Amino acid sequence: MPHVHTVKRRSKRTKSVVPVSLRIAGNEASHLAHTLDVSNHGVKLGGCRCEMKVGDKIEIRYRHKQAQFRVAWVISHKSSVERQIGAECLEPEKQVWGAPLPQQADEYEEKSARD
Predict the structure, then answer these.
(1) Is residue 3 part of a domain?
(2) What span, in angstroms and rounded, lies between the C-alpha atoms of 18 and 1?
(3) Beta strands in the chain (DSSP E)
(4) Would you say 87 and 42 are in contact if contact means Cβ atoms under 8 Å apart?
């Protein structure tokens, strides 16, 4: 049975679906994706078709702004080539999404398998 505990995020997520381009560090190829939700400290991306792994550094560009992120998690579905990516913003001061987003902390439930 999975163990559930409550964890705090540094900032609240805001639902936002916008097109972005991304590049994996060390690779000049640009890939298209879209946001699912954003915060000052991270992003959840959908529609990613490129190969990446946890820990990869990526550059995300939205409109004329860009910032560096680190991949925190990757979800692949057997029935699709598209992946969902969670990434932590390494340059939150750049406010890549435009206006500053809410700063309050956010709680969520994290499930983990019991040992």
Answers:
(1) no
(2) 37
(3) 2-9, 14-15, 19-24, 31-39, 42-48, 57-62, 65-76, 83-89, 106-113
(4) yes
pLDDT at 115 over 50: no
What's the domain count of the chain? 1
- Please check whether residue 14 is in contact with residue 39, taking contact to mean a CB–CB distance below 8 angstroms: yes
Tokens 């709680």 belong to residue: 107
Amino acid type, 4: V
- This prediction has a pTM of 0.77
Distance, CA of 81 to CA of 71 (rounded, Å)? 18
Which residues form the domain of 48? 13-93
Q: Tell me, what CATH number does 62's domain have?
A: 2.40.10.220
pLDDT digits (tens, 9 = 90+) for 64-107: 999 999 999 999 888 888 999 999 999 988 888 876 655 555 55
